[in-house]
Amino acid sequence: MLFWSVLSSGLLLLFVAPAPGYAQGNYLLAPNDLVAVTVFQEDDLATKSRVGNDGTISVPLIGTVKVGGKSVDEAAQIIRSRLAKGYLVNPQVNVGVEEFAKRLVTVLGEVQKGGTFEFPNQGPLDLLQAIGLAGGYSKVANPGKIVVKRRVDGKETVLLVNGKALAAKAGAERFEVFPGDTITVAQSIF
Question: Mind listing the pLDDT tens digit of every residue in the chain (190 residues)?
Fold first, then answer.
C-alpha cells in the first residue's frame, strides 16, 4: 500500500506500507508459517516455502536454510550471506510471512468457557489476556493458583503463577504465554 503526505513546505512524502499479512522484522518464524523469499532483480530465486517442524525452508541455489526461531530480518540476513558466498554479488533479500501458523493456547479449570484459543494477533499474549479469551475467571476460581504447562527443549515444564498478584500490581511485569501452553486455573477452597 502506498500512502502520501504533503508537508507545509509543499514537499510530497511517499510511504510504502508492508503488504497485508507480512510480518514486521522482529516476528519470530515458527513451524507452518508460509514464507516468501525474494531477491532483488533475481526473479528465478523467488520462492514460497512453509517452515518445517525442524525450522527449515528450501531456497533455490543454497538448499535448506534454518529459519525457525529467527526473526524475519535475521532470516533474510542468513539467506543473503549464503547467497553472497559464491552465487551473487551483494544480493538484496526480502523475507515476508504470507500466512502465519496458527498459534494456540489452551485454558482450563475455573474459567467461564475453557478450551483452546487462537492468539488474537501476531503479537505477544500475556496470561491475563489468555484468561480473558476464556471469558475470565469463574465464581469459584482461585486466581492466586494458576498452573502453566509448556514444553521447553522437548521437556514439559510446570510454572506456578499468581494471577491475583499480576492483576493487582500496576506496571507489573507481564507473564507471557507461548503457543502450545496449557493454563489451568485452580478452584478456591472455601
Answer: 333 433 444 444 443 333 334 445 567 888 888 999 999 999 999 999 999 888 899 999 999 999 988 889 999 999 999 999 988 889 999 999 988 888 889 999 999 999 998 887 667 788 999 999 999 999 999 998 999 998 877 788 898 988 888 888 766 678 888 888 899 999 987 6
- Rounded CA-CA distance 3/14 in Å is 6
Q: What is the CATH number of domain 104-187?
A: 3.10.560.10
Domain spans, the chain: 20-99, 104-187
Q: How would you class 93 by CB atoms within 10 Å of its CB: exposed for 0-12, middle for 13-18, buried for 19 or more?
A: buried
Residue 172 C-alpha cell reads as: 507489573
The answer to whether 93 and 143 are in contact (CB under 8 A) is no
**CA-CA-CA-CA torsion sign (153, 156, 160, 161):** positive
Q: What is the CATH number of domain 20-99?
A: 3.30.1950.10
